[in-house]
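== Sequence entry ==
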Amino acid sequence: MKDNYYIGVDIGGTNTKYGLVNEKGEIIFSGSFNTKLYKNPKDLASDIYYDYIKKSNEQHIKASGIGIGAPNGNFYSGCIEFAPNLNWGENIPIVHIFSEIFQLPAILTNDANAAAIGEKFFGAAKEMKDFVVLTIGTGLGSGIFANGNIIHGKNGYAGELGHTTIAESNRKCSCGRIGCLETYVSSRGILQTYKEKCASDVRETVPDDMTTKEIYNLALRGDEIAIETFKTTSEVLGRSLANLILILDPEAIFLFGGIANAHPILIPTITEVINNNVLSLFKDKVKILPSALINKNAAILGSTALFYLKDN
């Protein structure tokens, strides 16, 4: 990969970002698009292509391939399959679409796997063989490294922590099921928790356009309901992570995504709840950390690092 540049594409339910990355993990240039404005993925890929061509011509740099991270992205099939936060159909041949438009080889993986690969090659997990990256945004995903390898699973679907069910929830998930973890641990879940707590406190109606960042800022200013909202989120996540730790025994769990910026108030409660719910031999053994790439785009970097995995 020396002296090569790769395009990393991070397709999210709300926004799609891409960047041209060198072998050092530096993003040379990037672009962002509102995913919800696109009725089909071909139009999105075309807009990314034209933006890339304009910027690459200015920089006199050409890419050698495209790595794509997407919800329900299947590494084996090259398709996005049944992604609940996208509205493009059940089976999207995204690798074929990007390869055809860019005339470059393309590789696909789940967006959370891409974030984990980014953490492994360019972040704080360089020396780790066993770790998990949680992507907390519109939904909740998990990228898992075990014994130094990313876990895809037999069918390419491994890492759907957000769609494990929890006792605390009777909320309907975007996937159509009831009680998924991401109905609490996601931007939508946090907003719903905050609204419910405000309603029980007889507060004024919460604006529909309120964001989790605003709730976090309220918490920092001492707003009790905002603080309780993040405490509830942390407790629910901590109990689920305690089960995950008992199965995987990871060295660390990294928080990544927009919600991860709230790590100063999330991590203490998550850690406490984990220690209260694991076997004693696991207590204080697993580090809960913010991603080292939290202010970068780990999914873009991880998508390009797919070519490292391909070559190894």
